[in-house]
Specification:
The protein has a 5-stranded mixed sheet, with helices on one face. It has 404 residues and is of the alpha+beta class. A hairpin with a 5-residue loop joins strand 2 (320-328) and strand 3 (334-341). The chain has helices at 11-29, 45-57, 64-80, 85-101, 104-129, 134-215, 219-248, 253-258, 265-275, 296-316, 355-366, and strands spanning 281-289, 320-328, 334-341, 370-376, 389-396.
Length: 404
């Protein structure tokens, strides 16, 4: 297996190495060694094994497999001379560190290798000594190899479990934060659509008629324009109060009751006729829907699409017929189509931000429907003086997908 090059020793590893070295030297000078050197091995090689094992301890965390390989050689040298217990204890720590800090493959293979080594040592000891006491050698080998390896396995498993739990907690917190941001963004977008759709119509009418009142010198026309301005101001304030009430209602119980429905389109068309009376615009409602109830989100989306389309017609349309058509066959989706004349005009009657089309598109997307807005061929135009028209078309499925 490839060995890692050692890096800078960890502070705790340096303390372990220093403690093991000092302890071994103390035992050596006190003459507390075990065993006898093998013939031909000087007894002082025990100190060499001690120093090498202490050096391996410096790599126990930065290069655990390299440290274990060096430790095996140092232990073999120690066992061939006067054995120091400090050297053996440091070797057990290297086995433990190799399992705990090494790669996952090492954590699987080292315990198996320790078990195999213990079995081989036990069999060889029994075969050579042929005494029951030979089994004690196998027990010592197990204490030196298997015990620290299995301890490392248990601590590593506990550490990995804690790390996985921490990562899962962080992941859950991140997902919760993303959900919160998405919910806040969706709610802000919904509020922006409602505010735009409720107020833009009235403010556009106020802007158009205030311009007319300032430019027309006839008292009667100015008085009529001011009447329209006042009516739209009152209605705009009422819509704002309703929106504020919905925002203050934490339970949201008032929203479904206060939300406009399609049966209010007649009043919306009549209001458009009043607001567009001086612009040469005529408004027609064609209701071709099959009888039957519609989901509240679908009715709200259809109403707001018609409302915004009429507002855009008041701002941009040329004199002619503005047609609002609702169509539904059987249990199929609801189709909303608003067509207005789009001849050449020097500019809009009132300024706009372009948010209306974005809001309509978002409403349709939340219901998983289809939306298109743009010019249509001359043969599809409705009562346009120059044969040009602008059409807004939305197909709204009757199943609920999101919040409008």
């Amino acid at each position: 297996m490839p060995l890692r090059l050692p890096g800078r020793p960890h502070r705790h590893d340096a303390l372990i190495a220093a403690g093991g070295l000092l302890g071994g030297l103390t035992l050596w000078f006190l003459g507390l060694t075990t065993g006898r050197p093998v013939d031909g091995f000087p007894e002082r090689l025990t100190l060499v094994a001690l120093v090498v094992m202490s050096g391996a301890e410096l790599m126990r965390r930065t290069a655990p497999r390299t440290a274990l390989a060096v430790g095996v050689l140092a232990l073999a040298l120690d066992q061939s001379t006067s054995t120091l217990i400090a050297t053996v204890v440091m070797f057990t720590d290297l086995v433990y560190a190799a399992v705990l800090y090494g790669p996952p493959a090492a954590a699987r293979r080292i315990p198996r290798g320790c078990e195999l080594f213990t079995v081989l040592v036990t069999l060889v000891s029994v075969a050579l000594l042929r005494k029951p006491e030979a089994l004690l050698i196998g027990v010592v080998a197990a204490l030196v190899t298997i015990a620290p390896a299995q301890t490392g396995v248990g601590i590593r498993r506990h550490r990995d479990t804690a790390r996985a739990a921490r990562l899962e907690t962080e992941r859950t917190a991140l997902l919760a934060e993303l959900d919160r941001r998405e919910a806040v963004g969706a709610e802000r977008a919904r509020m922006a659509r409602e505010l735009h759709d409720m107020v833009a119509n009235h403010l556009s009418a106020i802007a158009i008629h205030s311009t007319a009142a300032l430019s027309i010198g006839e008292p009667k026309a100015a008085s009529d324009a001011l009447a329209v301005i006042r009516a739209n101001s009152v209605q705009g304030l009422a819509e704002m109060r309703r929106l504020i009430g919905l925002l203050r209602d934490a339970g949201g119980e008032q929203e479904s009751a206060a939300a406009p429905r399609l049966d209010a389109l007649d009043a919306l068309i009549e209001q458009a006729r009043t607001n567009g009376s001086g612009s040469g615009l005529r408004f027609t409602l064609l209701d071709e829907c099959a009888p039957g109830p519609l989901p509240a989100p679908v009715e709200l989306a259809a109403y707001r699409i018609v409302q915004e389309s009429l507002t855009n017609a008041l701002k941009h349309a040329s004199p002619g017929e503005v047609t609002v058509r609702l169509g539904r066959v059987g249990d199929g989706p609801l189709e909303v189509c608003v067509t207005s004349p789009s001849g050449d005009r020097p500019g809009p009657r009132a300024p706009g931000s372009g948010a209306g089309l974005v809001g309509m598109r978002e409403r349709v997307a939340l219901l998983d429907g289809e939306f298109e807005a743009g010019p249509v061929p001359a043969d599809d135009a409705y009562e346009s003086d120059d044969g040009k028209a602008w059409r807004v078309r939305a197909v709204l499925p009757l199943h609920e997908k999101g919040t409008l």
